[in-house]
Design goal:
This is LytTR family two component transcriptional regulator. InterPro entries: CheY-like_superfamily, LytR-like, LytTR_DNA-bd_dom, Sig_transdc_resp-reg_receiver. Keywords: Phosphoprotein. The chain is of the alpha/beta class. The protein folds into two domains: 120 residues, 3-Layer(aba) Sandwich (Rossmann fold); 101 residues, LytTr DNA-binding domain (OB fold (Dihydrolipoamide Acetyltransferase, E2P), Beta Barrel). Strands 2-1-3-4-5 form a five-stranded parallel sheet, with helices on both faces. A five-stranded antiparallel sheet has the order 10-9-8-12-11. A three-stranded antiparallel sheet has the order 13-14-15.
Length: 237
């Protein structure tokens, strides 16, 4: 049986070398590679790999923080890859399946693969410690923008993706609405909307038991009847 794997590392040579070593085993299909954490999250969401080989020391968002951006229901096994031995203890604290030091030695890789295969064959469900998000990674042209939660008025999803909205701008993020709800304090007010309670200026009730929440900047956020009472309770109304 062959397993689906992703390699996420900002160093192209490191990705190429690890791909070569893994493909030699005949056990893995390397379905994709990513050069940063945001691209890595996107690929995990779309490819649903069995395992990811994840570099720790990446720019903007490191490997540990990236784990907080993956939904629990699709979390793959994780093997951390690092050039720094001091990250080894942290990798075990995060309950990673294993870690590899760069440059990856073949015998060390083979021992790691044996452990991976045993876990996959047992069907064990991976579980990792993940911290709450304080910033939302958003994609711009050739840029990753980290938007502080304190700046976000609301987040919504539509056919084009998930959008984080501030008082003056709107950004696209690869995180799912479900994950953002679980990993932040943003409040679900509609099937497609999460709102920052601190940004609500007023609520206008509609005749059909729904409402509109107005932010301090004047943006309008729909509140469905299902969530109206919960929202009023959260605001102490």
């Amino acid at each position: 049986m062959r397993y689906k794997a992703l390699i996420i590392d900002d160093e192209p040579y490191a990705r190429e070398e690890l791909r070569f070593q893994l493909e030699k085993t005949g056990l893995f299909d390397i379905t994709a590679e990513a050069g940063n954490a945001v691209e890595g999250v996107r690929l995990v969401n779309s490819h649903r790999p069995d395992i990811i080989f994840l570099d720790i020391n990446m720019p903007v968002i490191n490997g540990f923080d990236m784990l907080s951006m993956i939904e629990k229901s699709i979390m793959p096994y994780v093997v951390f890859v690092t050039a720094y031995d001091q990250y080894a203890l942290k990798a075990f604290e995060e309950k990673a399946l294993d870690y590899l030091l760069k440059p990856v030695e073949q015998d060390r890789l083979e021992k790691t693969l044996e452990k991976i295969i045993r876990s996959l064959e047992k069907g064990e469900i991976p579980s990792y410690e993940r911290k709450d998000l304080t910033r939302i990674p958003c994609s711009l042209i050739n840029t990753i923008k980290l938007v502080d939660l304190s700046e976000i008025e609301y987040i919504y999803s539509d056919m084009t993706g998930v959008h984080a909205v501030t008082a003056g701008k709107e950004y696209l993020t690869d995180l799912t609405l479900k994950l953002i709800e679980c990993r932040t304090e943003l409040f679900r007010c509609h099937r497609q909307y999460l709102v920052n309670l601190a940004k609500i200026d007023r609520i206008v009730l509609n005749g059909n038991f729904s409402a509109d929440a107005y932010t301090a900047s004047g943006r309008v956020v729909p509140v469905s009847r299902r969530y109206l009472k919960l929202l009023k309770d959260a605001l102490g109304l």
